[in-house]
Amino acid sequence: MDELRIALIGCGMIGQQHIDRIQNRIKNAKVVAVCDVFEAGAKKGAEIAGEGTKVYTDSAAAINDPDVNAVVVTTPGAFHKDPVLQAIAAGKPVFTEKPLTNTAAECKEIVDAEMASGKHLVQVGFMRRYDRGYKQVKELIDEGKFGAPMVLKCTHRADGVDPSYTTAMAVTDTAIHEIDVLPWLIDDEWDEVQCIMPKTSSKAHEGLKDPQIMIMKTKTGIVTVLEVNVNCGFGYDINCEVVCENGVINLPCPSFPTVRYANNVSTKIEDNWILRFMDSYDVEIQDWVDHALKGETGGSSAWDGYVASITADALVKSQTSGVAEKVVTGGTPDFYKK
Ligand code: NAP
């Protein structure tokens, strides 16, 4: 295989972005078919992909098209399972947006199907592993001179959310990125997680608990304190400070000019997640293409997606229990050991 000929399933917001990305910025890959349950959505996707793109409303038909040799899934999380399983059944590499699926039980079905196929076919779109800043922090940790990490202090702040955003989504949609990227960063696994509810912001819509503090401990005893605060009102503000035995490493912030004006020194905070992580999506999709062409996967595996889902379930449970909940995965199968 020297080129991925992709069927993209789900032509919504990020689906449209990925079509544009693949057609215009990614090498050795092309979207040849698009699918959306609503024909109008699929047609919009085809318009972005360009002339000759096939339009489907049934994911199995798109995935099994003989001209298709790879799949990208960008439906909402609740509809990831079927196309991912269809791609595995067809033996075609599949990149699925995060989360792998919305429930741990469904993630397990995917893990079992991939292991039964005997091939590494599934990559999950946790793009922070491809962010330049996180990669630099990881390199510094791995260098060793800072000593062992002991504490991580993180913030995941957003300007505001729409009224459909729920208390659980602070975990499943927002903290899910830290749930995946932090164990990768420090080469460890979650052991127990707890969610504490501080005073709720007057800007949170009715019924939403915001901010939330998530305390997550790894198997070797490293503690993360994560503030999720989705009504901060001042921008998209991602921070991660790693306190090690001999020093402290801070995740670089996007670089904007520092200005001195009207008795103030100030700099900008990024507006939203699209702009903050724009470059990492390009790197992520190119890396998936490069691996898939060699019959491999990079980034987060189906197992990583399953573990993220188990961890999220434990945190959501703690949102009501208030106590630390254990993260029980049963151990990484040999198939997924690196
Ligand atoms: P969206 O705008 O709602 O797009 C989803 C699209 O899929 C819609 O066009 C929807 O059609 C279509 N669809 C729904 N069920 C389908 C099915 N069974 N088969 C084919 N198409 C189907 O959602 P989004 O914001 O793009 O999010 C999509 C996924 O990307 C989610 O899993 C989300 O978590 C993930 N995401 C990841 C990041 C990241 O940072 N990595 C950022 C944003 C989103 P209708 O609208 O007509 O129902």
Structural account:
The protein has nine helices and 16 strands. The protein is 37% helix and 23% strand. The longest helix is centred in the last third of the chain and has 21 residues, at 273-293. It folds into two domains: 4-128 and 278-301, NAD(P)-binding Rossmann-like Domain (Rossmann fold); 132-272 and 308-336, Dihydrodipicolinate Reductase, domain 2. β13 (259-261) and β14 form a beta hairpin. Bound molecules: NADP nicotinamide-adenine-dinucleotide phosphate. NADP nicotinamide-adenine-dinucleotide phosphate (NAP) binds next to α1.
Secondary-structure blueprint of this entry?
Blueprint: E1 4-9, H1 13-25, E2 29-35, H2 39-49, E3 54-56, H3 59-63, E4 70-73, H4 81-90, E5 94-97, H5 104-117, E6 122-125, H6 132-143, E7 149-157, H7 169-186, E8 190-196, E9 212-218, E10 223-229, E11 237-244, E12 248-250, E13 259-261, E14 264-266, H8 273-293, E15 300-301, H9 302-321, E16 325-326
Parallel strand pairs: 1-2, 1-4, 2-3, 4-5, 5-6, 7-10
Antiparallel strand pairs: 6-15, 7-11, 8-9, 8-16, 9-10, 11-12, 13-14
This protein binds NADP nicotinamide-adenine-dinucleotide phosphate (NAP).
NADP nicotinamide-adenine-dinucleotide phosphate binds at residues 9-15, 35-38, 41, 59, 74-77, 79, 97-98, 125, 127, 273.
Quick recap of the structure?
The chain is an alpha/beta fold and 338 residues long. It has 9 helices and 16 strands. A 7-stranded mixed sheet has the order 3-2-1-4-5-6-15, with helices on both faces.
